[in-house]
Every structure is written in C-alpha cells, then in structure tokens.
Predict the structure.
Amino acid sequence: MRMRSKHLSLIVLAIILVASVVVLQGCSSGADKTRDISYGGSGEAEESAQEPVEESVEEPAIPFEEDPLYTPSYEIQGNEIAVINTNRGVIKFEFFGEDAPNHVAAFIELAQKGFYDGTKFHRVVREPEPFVIQGGDPLSKTDDPMVGTGGPGYSLAAEFNENKHLEGTVSMARSQDPNSAGSQFYICLAPLPFLDGQYTVFGQVTEGLDIVQAVMQGDVMESVTIETE
C-alpha cells in the first residue's frame, strides 16, 4: 500500500514537471511574438531584424544664411513720384530720397521692373484703431499661404530717420532684424508715433489719401509706376 502511494506521488510530480515545461515554453513563444511585432509584424521578424534601424536623433540644423544687404544702383533725381493704381483708385506718394536713399532707390528699381504689379494689400488693420495697410509681397499674387514672408531676395540696411509716422506716411516693413526690409511697405492710416525711429520712413502720400482709407485686404495694386514732376 505504501509502495502504491509512493508510485502515485511520483506520477503526480512528473505531471507537474511536464506542465511547468509547457507553461514556460508558451511564455517564451509569447515573448518571441512580441519581438516580432516590434519589428513590423509576425512573420517579418527575421527579415526586418537584418535591416538597419534608423536613429530618431535629428540632424543638426543647417545655419540660416541671411540675404545679402543690397545697395541699389539707381541714382535718385529727387523729383520722382510713386503712382499706385489700385482697383479702388490711384495713390501717389513722394519720396524722402535724402533721408532713406537706399530704400527709395530700391523701391524705384522694383517698380520699374514691374515687381509690384499684381501684388495685393495682404494686410489691412483698422480695428480696434486705424493702423496700416501693407503690401508688396510677391507671394500675394497667388494667395500663397506663406504671404507676408516674401520679398525680392535681398535685404536693405536700416535707414531710420527723423520723419514721423503720420497719416499717409509710407514706411518699409521688416522683421525683428532692423536690416531686413525688402519689398513690403505699409501706409499709415493714422499718426503712429510709437513706430517713429524703428522703421524706415521713405515717403508720404500726396494724392489719394481717401483711397488709402478705403483699401480693403485683398485689393490689388494693378500697377506701380514712377513719374517725375
């Protein structure tokens, strides 16, 4: 009787050992499957594991190369007038050639090349108080989503001067860098003394101030030409 009990105990122990081995094998199989998924799915582990794993570390940013500061070749005569033909009417402004010679000469060069023709006033701010109308971005011709960032491909050195920002004053827009003006300009809808000395004033509206006040965002500069008095 004791021998039979001993045999039964050995049989039970053997069964337990076998079951343990089966359980361990199942866990190992599950772990392998998890590794397969991490490489792209079951059945592709061997092939995928042989492929190089791409690093997630970003490459160093390429240093930004600033546009070269531009010196225009146009010689200012002193009697030039800018004529902006819009879909609402004509705006004319005189230049401050002695105070901002590079900005004036560059604007005249661009106008004579037809650079501004077809561009839009892409920014008009009248609320909560009258501020400016702004245009001169070539990207506005096609309503590019990056409008407001375009320019002629060069930058101008700042020519801050004593001229005040009055109603109808024409100044060059820029980024935070003082030496970043290009082709975009704005016309003041009211006196804006807090802008004085921070942006290059290069002209003043002499005709069509009512048109300036009527311009809406999206209005087109059909042509910008230069006349002489």
About this structure: The domain at 80-228 is CATH 2.40.100.10 (Cyclophilin). The CA atoms of residues 78 and 127 lie 36 Å apart. Helices lie at 2-38, 45-49, 101-112, 209-214. The radius of gyration is 36 Å.
